[in-house]
Amino acid sequence: MSQSTIESVLQEKRLFNPPRDFSSRATIGSSQHYEELYQKASSNPEQFWAELAQQELHWFKPWDKILDWKPPFAQWFVNGKINITYNCLDRHLTTERRNKAALIWEGEPGDSRTLTYAQLHREVCQMANAMKQLGVCKGDRVGIYMPMIPEAAIAMLACARIGAPHTVVFGGFSAQALQDRLLDAEAKLVVTADSGYRKDKIVPLKAQVDRALADNGVPSVTNVLVVQRTKEKVSMEPGRDHWWHEVQPEMSGHCPAEPMDSEDMLFILYTSGTTGKPKGVVHTTGGYNLYTHMTTKWIFDLQETDVYWCTADVGWITGHSYIVYGPLSNGATSLMYEGVPRPSNPGCFWDIVEKYGVNIFYTAPTAIRAFIKMGEHLPKARDLSSLRLLGTVGEPINPSAWMWYHEVIGGGRCPIVDTWWQTETGGIMISPLPGVTPTKPGSATRPFPGIIVDVVDLDGNPVEDNEGGYLIIKHPWPSMMRTVHKDPDRFRRTYWEPISPRDNQHFYFAGDGAKRDEDGYYWVMGRVDDVINVSGHRLGTMEVESALVSHPAVAEAAVVGRPDEVKGEDIFAFVTLEGNYTGSESLVQELKQHVVQEIGAIARPGEIRFTDAMPKTRSGKIMRRLLRNLAAGEEIGGDTSTLEDRSVLDKLRS
Ligand code: WT7
Questions:
Q1: Are residues 286 and 262 in contact, defined by beta-carbon separation less than 8 angstroms?
Q2: Which helix (H) or strand (E) holds 241?
Q3: HSE-up of 438 (CA within 13 Å, CB side)?
Q4: How far does residue 421's CA lie from ligand 1's centre (Å)?
Q5: Do residues 192 and 203 make contact, with C-beta atoms less than 8 angstroms apart?
Q6: Residue 489 contacts by C-beta under 8 Å, 6 or more apart in sequence?
Q7: Would you give the DSSP letter of residue 109?
Q8: pTM tops 0.85
Q9: I want to staple 428 with a disulfide (CB 3.0 to 4.6 A). Which of 252, 399, 419, 452 is the partner?
Q10: 533 Cα–ligand 1 center, Å
Q11: Are strands 416-419 and 389-393 parallel, antiparallel or unpaired?
């Protein structure tokens, strides 16, 4: 967040009580109910979760022990047997939900499709059977590289049905990034589509898969299942590639849900961190099912007839937890949209709200800021009266964007849930419960019942109210990441060692700075590590630097975040060139394109500046703080006495 935004957040004093009308119908609608839950959950979190697990989920076999905590490794519901797709599908089939819409899908070119629970169950079983026939066994990993079409969710659920952990790779990632992830996961099968629609363009997904797999690029992959979406021409390798529409009719619509151990891996999802390579965040079955179920139920206050829409892509954790697993476990109607707002259709979100009568709408601050720019006339021209609850996620929301969302989209009547969480936490950790929590624009308010958080210094000492510090989580929770895939040591180092309390406690370090105010409300300020947040997409500066230096012209690269009005942050790269190259506009374009090829379009630097030298300390460390100042066009602040060569700064300024 830029300095001025932080200041406006810190001065924010407005308070919005939940509308009485909303509270009276909410699942959790009285402060008394909330306080009871809260007390119970804080005094004995394990018992609290165990009771909910029993009430809310179907288990094939109960657990022996609620929590086994050998820091930093947790096991929840030890020896319990469960299948998340049984909870998301089968159990609804014997109720009135059988013929209720599970997924409503709106395609980018305007086509649409609705799948009832019975239909979704059938297609998931068919794809699960196809996976089995292609040799996928329990425990084998499956890569999913898809546009936002129902088959993306179907593929995830099919994997979970047979116990094959999925790893969804966002369709905007490059062939190189896809290959890196498939290699690390040692995927056996890839599910993809011929291509997908994105911003009026056709994105060639299958061709990217071909590139990633070329020359035995990922030796573990033996088959590719291809969904036909655009009917663009693709090449199919005999024996390896199979069309889903040819396989599907031969597959039975029955496939029993495999009883999984609570702690069997459900999925790996790669996310960026401080160091170069993205981490494979591992989530397991039982605790994740419970936590995404409960948070969806209480935070989005799902009612039986609601149409719920989360605008994320299933390639991110938000899509996993709050398009697919959480809503379906609750028997909700979850809307999926293939497109994103674009210049040719800036009102598309509001058209969809009107068309389907969306009741609950969950999006990102970057989207809200983009809508503010496009103008009020777009939402004002549509009937948004069906909306009753709004949500936001992905980055801090500035109070002015919050107010606009509240007034223009919510018509002043919809509570806003600002939800703080991460890929690693699996589900929402800090958020209002909309029927009971008074909200303050810019604050995610209070932790979910059973979640124990604090703001501390590096030694783990709590800081005073209203003083900044590091956001930590003190007690294990059911959907916490279990490890970094194939690298438990990195898990410990990254999340459990940065904060070291003196007594034998273990604090989960979230990587965010925060403060807690006098009402116990949390204000998350943004990352304190080398992670930048571009339009709600998380990128490691090192990752982008590695991409840049892999170009022959680049000798050294330093990447920082620069505040951006719409994107939150944008990528600013300082580059020194190899001796035989000179900087030019065409080289700038070439380097930007190179990063897109290495990582994907989400990592395209907004600006690249050539420099003869980087500002370094005498020990050779690049002083990023100074580069951040320069990128933001600010005065260079703070101490510069450790700088080795001061003239570098003057050159950089010019
Ligand atoms: C980082 C996690 C999990 C959802 C999507 C992003 C930032 C997320 C908020 C919020 C302030 C937020 C944090 C966090 N963030 N939600 N409501 N307020 N910051 O998942 O890619 O794992 O990124 O997003 O910096 O650490 P992610």
A1: yes
A2: strand 241-243
A3: 8
A4: 5
A5: no
A6: none
A7: T
A8: yes
A9: 419
A10: 8
A11: parallel
Q: Please check the confidence at residue 535 and state whether its pLDDT lies above 80.
A: yes
Q: DSSP assignment of 127-156, as one string? A: HHHHHHHTT--TT-EEEEE--SSHHHHHHH
Can you tell me which residue has the tokens 């959950």? 41
How far is the C-alpha of 276 from the C-alpha of 365, rounded, in Å? 27
User: In whole numbers, what is the pLDDT of the chain averaged over residues?
Assistant: 95
Instruction: List pocket residues of ligand 1, CB cut-off 6 Å.
Output: 271, 317-318, 393-396, 418-423, 444, 510-512, 524, 526-527, 533, 538
Burial 369-378, CB ≥16 within 10 A → b, else e = bbbbeeeeeb
pLDDT for the residue numbered 7 = 63
Strand-pairing partners, residue 617, are 643
Q: What is the pLDDT of residue 560?
A: 95
Cα–Cα separations (whole angstroms), residue 572 to 5, 441, 445, 534, 625: 19, 29, 32, 11, 13
Among protein residues, the one with the nearest Cα to ligand 1's atom 24 is 394
Check pLDDT > 80 for residue 654: no
- Which ligand 1 atom is at minimum distance from the Cα of 511? 26
Report in angstroms the alpha-carbon separations of 322 from 110, 147, 184, 293, 389: 23, 17, 26, 9, 15
Burial 74-112 (b: 16+ CB within 10 A, else e): bbbbeebbbbbbbbbbbbbeeeebeebbbbbbbbbeeee
The tokens for 651 are: 């050159």
* 191-203 CB burial, b ≥16 within 10 A, e <16: bbbbbbbbeeeeb
Assess whether pLDDT exceeds 90 at residue 653: no
What are the Cα distances from residue 555, in Å, to 176, 547, 549, 577, 579? 21, 12, 6, 5, 8
Q: Residue 634 phi/psi, 5° resolution? A: -95, 165
Q: What are the angstrom distances between the C-alpha of 423 and each of 1, 270, 300, 315, 482?
A: 20, 9, 19, 11, 12
> Contact 620/642 with Cβ under 8 angstroms?
no
Measured CA to CA in angstroms, residue 330 lies from 87, 169, 308, 478 at distances of 8, 25, 11, 17
Residue pair 374/342 in contact (Cβ under 8 Å)? The answer is: no
**What is the identity of the amino acid at 288?**
Y
First to last CA, the chain: 25
Alpha helices, DSSP H only, in 193-279? 205-213, 244-247
Per the DSSP assignment, residues forming a β-bridge with 637 are none
Assigned token pair, 108: 């980018």
Ligand 1 probe mutation, 395, 416, 537, most atoms within 8 A of CB: 395
* Residue 489, pLDDT above cutoff 90: yes
CA atoms within 13 A on the CB side of 262: 26
Structure tokens at 500: 């070291």
